[in-house]
Structures are given as C-alpha cells and as structure tokens.
Amino acid sequence: MNKRGCLLFLLLILMTALLTACSNSAEPSSSKEEETGENLQETGGNLQIGVMNDPVSLDPHGANENVSNSINSNMYDRLVYLDKNLEIAPGLAESLVQIGETTWEASIRKDVQFHDGSQLNAEVVKANFDRIRDPEIGSPVAFLFNMITEVKVIDDYTVHFETEFPFAPLPSHLAHPGGSIISMGSIEASYEALEKGEDAFTPTNERPIGTGYFKFEDRTPGQSVTLSRHENYWGDELAKVDTVTFQVIPEDLTRIAELETGGIHLTYPVNPSDAERIENGPDTYLEQANSTRMVYLGFNTEVEPFDDPKVRQAIHMAIDKDGILDGVVSGIGIRADGPIAPDVFGFSEQIDKITFDREMAKDLLAEAGYPDGFPTTLLTDDDRERQDLAEMIQYQLSEIGIDVSIDMFEFGTYLERAGNGESELFLGSWGTVTMDGDYGLYPVFHSSNKGSAGNRSFIEHDELDQLLDNARQATDEEERLELYRKAQNVLAEQSPYAYLYYPDSIAGVRNEVEGFFQYPSGFYFLRDVTLKEE
Which domain holds residue 488? Predict the structure, then answer.
C-alpha cells in the first residue's frame, strides 16, 4: 500500500481507537526488492546461515531462545507481527480489535492452508492458545498469555480473547514467535504423545507444520535444519530463495571463516571482536542495529550468600561496566543501568542506579559478614563473548576478595542448569522481543515465573510482584511508565541481576545477499532475501 493509503488508515486508527493495519502481506517487503541489473539473479538459490547452537525445539511453543525463534519465525505465522517500523501489522488475523476492556476480537483470514494442506480457522486458533496455556503441556512461553482466561470461537473465522484484566500489550505478545500457529494435527499429536508419557513437543519438533513462507524439509540434529519455499503460501509474495539451511557451527571463528570463504551466506550473532574483520572483508559486510537485549550477571537468590541483597549490591557495585564494554565487546553496545533498553516502552532515565564503587562494595561485603570475600562459581555457556565476559568478571570480583570459579557448558546444558537453579552466579541475556516493558520485567522478575520460564534468579518479592501486576492491568500509558519506574527502583535495591550492557545486534553477511533485515530482538525474517550473482 502506498504512503497515502497508510496515512488514511492511521487516521482511521486514531479516530476509532481500533487496531487495524496498512498491509495484507505477512512480512514487509525489502527496500532492496526493486534493485535490478543484467548480472543479478533476483530469485532462487540456496541460502546458508550459520548459527551457534542446535535449536532447542522446532515447536514454537516448546522453546524461547534465539536460534529456535529465528528458524520458527520463517515456518510459522502469528496472528499479528511487528513490521520494520516496529508497529503491529496483520498476519493470520486480518484485524485485531479491542471491543471491551477485557475482550479482543481477531478476524482470521480465510483460505489459509497449512503446509500439510489442512485449513486454518477459528477452532485451530483457539486450540493453539489453549495448548500454550495448558499447564500439562508446560510451554516455556505460557507466561506470554497467562492473562488470557478464555479463547472463544464466535464463528468459523472469528475468535475472542478474554483477559483476566485489561491488558494493553496483548497485541505485542501475540506478535511474539511464541504466538505462532501450528496445525490441528500437530496439536492432536502433541496430546497423544502426552498420554503416552512422552514429551508433548516431540511430534512438532520432528515434523513442523505451519503456514509460513518456508516449510520444513529436513533436519540432522546437531548439524543442520533445512527449509524449502512454500509454493502455496497464502501471502502476496513467496520467499525469494528456494531453500534455507541453518548450519550449526558452535565455534564463532569457524563461522566467520565459513562466511569469508562462502560456505555460509550470513551468520548471527557475531562476536564484537570480529566485527572489524567482517566489515573490512572483501566479500562481506556488517549489519548492525540497536538491540533490546540486556546482558547481565545473575544471582541465585535462594542460595547463600546471594540470598542477602547487600552481597548482591556489593557485587553489582564492584563491576566496572565501562571496562567490560571496552574490553569484551569493543565498545559495540551501551552500558546498562536498568533491565529495559532505551528503545523499549518502560525505559526511564529516572531510576535508581548502582554505580561502580569498589571501596563501597568492600564495605557492603563487610556489613554482610564477608570482610574477606568468599569463593563461588559462575555458570556460563561456551560462547566466546561469554567466556571473555566471565573471565573479566572473575578478575574484577577478585579485587573485592571474591574467588570465582567458572563452570562452562554448551548452551542447552547451560539453559537447563540455570532454569533448574543449579547455579550461584550465572551470565545471561534477555531480549524484550515485544518492545514492551511487561516482557522485559514480568517473566524475568515476577515470582510466578521462577525457573525456566524466565526468573532464573528465583527472586520472590511481594512489592515487586504487586507493581508488575498493577502495570499489566493499567490502561493509561503514563501510569504504566510510573509503575515500571518504581519496579526498577525495587530491583536496584534487591539486585537480583547486575545489569551489564545492551549489546548491538550484529550479523555478518556476504555481498551477494540482499534484502536481509534483523529486528532489535535479534530475530530475522528471510522472505525477502535474495542471492545475486555477479
């Protein structure tokens, strides 16, 4: 739709206070689509992407980590999605309208087929969100939708989402990859597996069936996942390349070498220390953008001595974040003073901040009963940036008498151990994918989400819970912002995390790739990617 049409729709939104949209396409078109040339191949080819770990699950309701979400976002559609302007746009729902304080109406597209030929309708949509919210299924993205009390089928192509309280960020939550829609057959197979005592996510993980512009082709666990173009895709445009293969290459230097030699066409993430190498390479370029991700040092608040806020504050105070930015990520990022990145709704400059002060940190440790420090272990994964970060924190904490041993595991084991509370200190990151502070705070710090759902510090604090609950229910933006500010001040006092930095999203790309676009969340969508041949 042209700009004039979008403006008319925006005026309609303002007049009616309804959520509508300016486009019928499932993903935004690339700004490079119109580039032509005699020596360019605009469509076709086999896109090769290097990723750092095997996806946890190809069931979009069974994982909530970057590699899984990035792959799944290309096989499945959501009811709505964030476009390139980070605004809500229609996906499988032609419209999503709030028709009451606690009621949202979604009008489902007609004539949309899944990759297995089955039909999308309101019953399928209801079954998806019932499954995500089913505690027996145990979805790690259930927290995204736990405010929904019921999904009602109104007719074949209309559903109502009833929420426990007014919840303004619902469209943003529905746009998360965790809101992806799988086929009814996949849902039925999931419950059959559950009845047999098997993992409910196994059937879809082994045979993913969505409605997306790519469909599942093949997988070799630990090595690769291959998708092929869905020729019967419901949207206005098909994917440009024939296939996409996600190659699992854990070592980042190996991924860079493969990028330089043409073994892969792009890779994400890129270690900041390798950014200059890619930028200056004759056959590669760097895609860099602000991110919504926050890297942190976490404390297991249920184990001694980290059950004492003074100890946590002392460690937070002993960390030289500017030194970490320069030494670990080559200055590619922003120092983090709070859990919410600057581009996210809920960010505030007016929050209490813990600043670097080594002498005060020593005093706090003495007050807590540890004048000479103590030994501890730091859990991390085997990413090179995390290794460098762990070593720098190890050194900085030694300056206040804390002797840190580093426990390093591959990513899947790391996630499991952190989620199970098998840690004392741990390094992690959290991206506010929805661009709304609710996602940046509620799953990470509310006591109802302790463990693998997001609250890996296991913090339980009544005032914090109440503030986060109230912020979810507030309908006034200024009220929500004030509640988030207060919540962040409680977090500064309690310090379940020492916030470190907001890293830029960095992808390495070969020159023949055009149309690649990454979101602040770090996810990328590949419908518009083309491979040109000189």
Answer: 293-504
- 314 and 440 inside one domain: yes
Of 177, 196, 215, which residue is a domain's last? 196
Stretch (H or E) spanning 315: helix 309-318
**529 CB neighbour count, 10 Å cutoff:** 24
> Residue 51: which of 527, 533, 523, 531 has the closest Cα?
523
CATH of the domain at 485: 3.10.105.10
Please tell me whether residues 218 and 101 are part of one structural domain.
Answer: no
Count how many residues are written for the chain.
534
* Rounded-to-integer distance, Cα 256 and Cα 50, Å: 9
Yes or no: say if 262 and 66 are a contact pair by the CB < 8 Å rule: no
Residues 333 and 424 in one domain: yes
CA 107 to chain centre: 26
Q: Are strands 530-531 and 513-514 parallel, antiparallel or unpaired?
A: antiparallel
My answer on whether 259 and 400 are in the same domain is no
> Does residue 284 sit in helix, strand or coil?
strand
Structural domains in the chain (count):
3
Q: What is the pLDDT along the chain (534 residues), one digit of tens a residue?
A: 443 344 333 333 333 333 433 333 344 333 333 333 333 334 689 999 999 889 999 999 999 888 999 999 999 999 999 888 788 999 999 999 999 999 999 999 999 999 999 999 999 999 999 999 999 999 999 989 999 999 999 999 999 999 999 998 999 999 999 999 999 999 999 999 999 999 999 999 999 999 999 999 999 999 999 999 999 999 989 999 999 999 999 888 999 999 999 999 999 888 888 999 999 999 999 988 888 889 999 999 999 999 999 999 999 999 999 999 999 998 899 999 999 999 899 999 999 999 999 999 999 999 999 999 999 999 999 888 899 999 999 999 999 999 999 999 988 899 899 999 999 999 999 989 888 999 999 999 999 989 987 899 999 999 999 999 999 989 899 999 999 999 999 999 999 999 999 998 889 999 999 988 877 766 678 999 999 875
Backbone angles phi, psi at 253, to 5 degrees: -65, -35
Tokens of 168: 């303004």
For the record, the structure tokens of 431 come out as 């991206």
Give the predicted TM-score (pTM) of the model: 0.80
Determine, yes or no, domain membership for 74. Answer: yes
Cα(48)–Cα(65) distance, rounded to whole angstroms?
20
Question: What sign has the CA pseudo-torsion 256, 262, 263, 269?
Answer: positive
What are the b/e assignments for 91-124, b being 16+ CB within 10 Å?
Answer: bbbbebebeeebebbbbbbeebebbeeeebbbeb
- Tokens 């940046």 correspond to 440
Residues 306 and 440 in one domain: yes
